[in-house]
Design brief:
Length: 383
């Protein structure tokens, strides 16, 4: 397969925090603002203002997604300061906190909001998973259980208001989402859809990049819109893209026109991945050097091969996943993210001794980001 297609990097990473409890508000429209926390530079909390209260989408006290092993209680002081900021800035209470999925850049530090009467809207499976992993003390969860709105199907929030919110429930039919279930939040009044990190697009100069691959989450996003047959003029994402030319972050919003052109010009990642997963295991094992030579000469992106590994895992093609993970680490040696992929491939395939070995390697190389890789792989498998 020709690999002249450029792989588009679809996730931005926040810079290290300098003053962890300062906030910056960007007014997007009369009712919608984006809030940046210094402890989470790359992600945004979205605030929707109603006449007598606020609705907050996502509580990203940190940039980390699924990889940080933590208890949500660690982020409570940051959340307390955030709630104080919102109260001071808007002079209104927070009525609802909307969470798209269980990752920590979506839901962390919820306790202070519970204490002040806010209700949490969350997919039922995500809430149960968070509790099972100890991300919130059971006593706290029990105390505020009546303030949790567990979603298992499409529903409507604030239906009688001038600005209702349609809650879209994405189940197992949407195969590219990062968690078992996922929520989107659609605002018919403004025809805006908050898709968080499922809106996996960056700004592309189409003249400079006439062809590129895009994250398959975009395919699920497109499908969710087509299934519900509603007009969407704006797409809101979790990550704010850093613009090096201006040393600023862009608003995390894309127009429908850009979304359409992005899909038309780009190629879904799974289309390219399929060309690699179809390679026979015998060739992977016995013709590895020549295959490696082809991959290097064609400058195949490590990120693409990483997706190949996880597609093999999804298909339960365990030997192929391990073989591709080894090739990935030959192409990009020493990268802890890809060592993590290799260890997870061994874990998912049931080879615990090798999984334990790579867990120790990760802890030795990068303990802050990989304190217990085995536990993370177990959570990933369960979810």
């Amino acid at each position: 397969m020709k690999c002249s297609i450029l792989l588009l990097v679809l996730f931005t990473c926040g810079a290290a925090a300098q003053q962890p409890f300062s906030f910056q508000r960007t007014q997007h429209s009369r009712e919608v603002s984006f809030i940046q926390l210094d402890s989470a530079k790359g992600v945004r909390s979205t605030v929707i203002e109603y006449p007598k209260f606020l609705v907050v989408i996502e509580l990203p006290m940190i940039d980390a997604g699924a990889n940080r092993a933590t208890n949500l209680a660690e982020d409570v002081p940051k959340a307390q300061r955030y709630l104080q900021y919102l109260t001071r800035e808007y002079q209104k209470p927070v009525k609802y906190v909307l969470s798209t999925h269980w990752h920590l850049h979506s839901l962390s530090g919820i306790t202070p909001f519970f204490e002040h009467g806010a209700q949490l809207v969350v997919a039922q499976s995500n809430w149960h998973y968070s509790l099972a992993q100890g991300m919130l003390p059971q006593a706290v969860a029990q105390q505020y259980r009546k303030q949790v709105i567990s979603v298992t199907r499409d529903t409507v929030l604030l239906a009688k208001s001038a600005n209702p919110i349609e809650v879209w429930f994405l189940d197992e039919q949407y195969r590219f989402k990062p968690t078992k279930d996922y929520l989107f939040f659609y605002f018919p009044k403004s025809q805006a859809l908050h898709a968080s990190c499922m809106c996996a697009m960056n700004h592309v100069d189409f003249a400079q990049r006439p062809t590129f691959m895009y994250n398959d989450r975009v395919s699920d996003l497109d499908r969710a819109i087509r299934v519900r047959q509603v007009p969407v003029e704006q797409l809101i994402k979790l990550n704010a893209e850093y613009d090096a030319t201006t040393d600023t972050y862009r608003e995390p919003v894309f127009s429908q026109a850009y979304f359409s052109e992005f899909k038309q010009r780009g190629t879904p990642l799974h289309v390219a991945v399929k060309a690699y997963t179809s390679i026979a295991l015998d060739r992977l094992n016995h013709d590895r050097d020549s295959l490696l030579n082809v991959l290097v000469q064609q400058k195949v992106s490590p990120a693409l091969l990483n997706s190949v590994v996880y597609e093999c895992l999804r298909e339960q093609a365990w030997p192929q996943a391990v073989a591709w993970a080894h090739l990935l680490n030959l192409i990009e040696p020493g990268d802890t993210n890809y060592i993590d992929t290799l260890g997870e491939a061994y874990y998912q395939s049931g080879n615990l001794p090798m999984a334990e070995y790579y867990s120790r390697v990760l802890q030795r190389l990068d303990a802050p980001n990989f304190p217990d890789a085995l536990a993370t792989w177990a959570r990933n498998k369960a979810n």
